[in-house]
């Protein structure tokens, strides 16, 4: 038992209603998301974005449909404007995030695109400062500013010639992906609709759009290992990853799961480094700022919710 005035070592993960299941779901999402950039990099080396994305959305749609089929929750009919809002949230969060992220992967160094795309926690912090009443807005603002400064260092990479070594579209796509994920993470916990009902229509829309996109390019389809890896990206990081994350946010809106989510850029960057990707010393300093700022923002938000 902890005496009054003494902080428990694990104060950010105190047991509470929904806390343990939420952390388990969040950890599962992080584990799957951490493999996304590495597997995506290997497929994009030999296949266009459109094909990889089609396989992803197909795999995700199968997962969401299976979860929906096995679920016991009775579906309540929703129509009109009430149905449009969840559909828009799912489309922006799933289709927007993933398509823009893979455009970035194909247009710039994957390890840099991955770090920029995972600035969405900093964008959430900016939203908190702008629209809520945080206990320490100055600290949140400083952490977010340092994080975006780190992004600038990652983009520059310490190169002498110029900053933008990849296609400029890639950098905008990476930031756009982060914006979409930040929006989804802020809004999804406030929706009454279950994650599978929210994400299944969006994944089906993604299947149709990416099929038309890939058919227009008219190249050979992946087979064998590449086909399996593409479906894994859909069933794993996209399908179960989004489902686990959405469940975690619904179970625990107190901010504790956010701390777990910030482990994703650490794990994914480590896997990319082990696969041969390299960052310059300047970009490494930027990565440390990005990751450290994300953790600081998550801990501050969690502490604020505990105080409330």
Task: Describe the protein.
By secondary structure, the chain is an all-alpha fold. It has one domain. 74% of the residues lie in helices and 0% in strands. It has helices spanning 19-33, 36-44, 49-70, 81-107, 110-117, 120-131, 137-156, 168-187, 195-217, 225-251, 256-261, 264-274, 281-307. The protein is globular, with a radius of gyration of 19 Å. The model is unreliable at 1-17 and 159-164 (pLDDT under 50).
Secondary-structure blueprint of this entry?
Blueprint: H1 19-33, H2 36-44, H3 49-70, H4 81-107, H5 110-117, H6 120-131, H7 137-156, H8 168-187, H9 195-217, H10 225-251, H11 256-261, H12 264-274, H13 281-307
Helix pairs in contact: 1-10, 2-10, 3-9, 3-10, 4-5, 4-8, 4-9, 5-8, 5-12, 6-7, 6-8, 7-13
Note the gap between the termini. 21 Å
Number of domains: 1
Structural class: mainly alpha
Q: What share of residues are in beta strands?
A: under 5%
Helical content class: over 70%
**Segments where pLDDT lies below 50 for 5+ residues?**
1-17, 159-164
Using DSSP, what is the number of strands? 0
Q: What is the residue-averaged pLDDT?
A: 78
| SSE run | HHHHHHHHHHHHH
Helix segment tally? 13
Strand count, sense and barrel status of the largest sheet are: none
CA radius of gyration: 19 Å
Rough shape?
A: globular
Keywords: Cell membrane, Membrane, Transmembrane, Transmembrane helix
Subcellular location: Cell membrane
GO cellular component, one term: plasma membrane
Main location: membrane
């Amino acid at each position: 038992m902890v005496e009054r005035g003494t902080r428990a070592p694990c104060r950010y993960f105190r047991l509470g209603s929904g806390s343990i299941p939420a952390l388990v779901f969040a950890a599962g999402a992080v584990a799957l998301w951490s493999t996304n950039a590495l597997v995506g990099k290997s497929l994009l080396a030999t296949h266009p974005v459109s094909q990889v994305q089609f396989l992803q959305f197909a795999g995700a749609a199968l997962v969401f449909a299976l979860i929906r089929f096995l679920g016991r929750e009775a579906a309540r009919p929703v129509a009109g404007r009430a149905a449009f809002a969840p559909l828009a949230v799912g489309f922006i969060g799933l289709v927007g995030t993933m398509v823009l992220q893979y455009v970035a992967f194909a247009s710039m160094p994957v390890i840099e695109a991955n770090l920029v795309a995972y600035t969405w926690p900093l964008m959430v912090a900016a939203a908190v400062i702008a629209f809520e009443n945080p206990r320490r807005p100055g600290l949140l603002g400083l952490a977010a500013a340092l994080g975006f400064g780190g992004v600038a260092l990652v983009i520059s990479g310490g190169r002498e010639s110029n900053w933008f070594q990849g296609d400029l579209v890639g950098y905008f796509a990476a930031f756009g992906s982060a914006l979409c994920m930040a929006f989804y993470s802020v809004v999804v916990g406030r929706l009454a609709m279950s994650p599978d009902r929210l994400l299944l229509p969006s994944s089906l829309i993604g299947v149709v759009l990416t099929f038309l996109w890939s058919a227009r390019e008219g190249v050979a389809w992946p087979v064998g290992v590449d086909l399996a890896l593409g479906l894994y990206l859909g069933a794993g990081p996209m399908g179960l990853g989004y489902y686990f994350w959405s469940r975690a946010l619904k179970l625990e809106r107190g901010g504790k799961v956010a701390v777990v989510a910030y482990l994703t850029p650490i794990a994914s960057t480590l896997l990319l480094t082990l696969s041969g990707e390299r960052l310059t010393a300047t970009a490494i300093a930027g990565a440390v700022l990005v990751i450290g700022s994300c953790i600081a923002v998550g801990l501050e938000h969690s502490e604020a919710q505990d105080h409330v």
